[in-house]
Design the sequence.
């Protein structure tokens, strides 16, 4: 894959070639263009080549992971910032030969750490990234919360499975209780 850099107002943005080979490369290219179109970028070619490339690649990885597992599932429980909506629906896991993989809490934590580390960096605190910083932070937090939710659900499922008390009272399930009619008027 060929890399080119674009110079915009003393800022450089890494572009990932002009003809992506697959949907993942297209997502990476679109994210790079998205940063450029919103006035973001890095000071110097070297910064764009190293920091910018790593940031775009990590953000692509996080978005792709969510998209391939079902963005709807995550979005139902925790609202993903609207700013990222245009980047979902690209992985098309229904076309994979195997079943859609489930969310993994460890992988969600890894993605969370990558995303939240960027929020703390000095270049992210610059005005040119104000439009992204808060949404990126919220996205990272959502990944952590969903990981906690999955861990809690797994613990709860084990407790239920190991419980000696049935979840449903079998006596009440097999019986019907008939109440007298409610009479308000003659």
Sequence:
């Amino acid at each position: 894959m060929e890399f080119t850099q674009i110079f915009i107002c003393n800022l450089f943005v890494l572009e990932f070639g002009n003809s992506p080979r697959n949907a993942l490369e297209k997502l990476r290219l679109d994210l790079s263009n998205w940063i450029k179109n919103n006035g973001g970028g890095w000071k110097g070619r070297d910064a764009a080549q190293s920091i910018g490339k790593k940031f775009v690649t990590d953000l692509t990885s996080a978005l792709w992971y969510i998209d391939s597992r079902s963005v709807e599932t995550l979005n139902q429980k925790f609202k993903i910032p609207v700013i990222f909506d245009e980047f979902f629906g690209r992985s098309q896991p229904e076309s994979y030969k195997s079943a859609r993989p489930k969310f993994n809490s460890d992988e969600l934590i890894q993605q969370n750490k990558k995303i939240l580390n960027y929020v703390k960096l000095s270049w992210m605190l610059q005005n040119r990234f104000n439009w992204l910083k808060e949404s990126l932070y919220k996205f990272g937090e959502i990944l952590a919360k969903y990981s906690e939710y999955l861990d809690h659900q797994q613990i709860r499922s084990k407790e239920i499975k190991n419980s000696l008390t049935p979840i449903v009272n079998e006596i009440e399930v097999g019986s019907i209780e008939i109440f007298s009619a409610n009479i308000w008027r003659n």
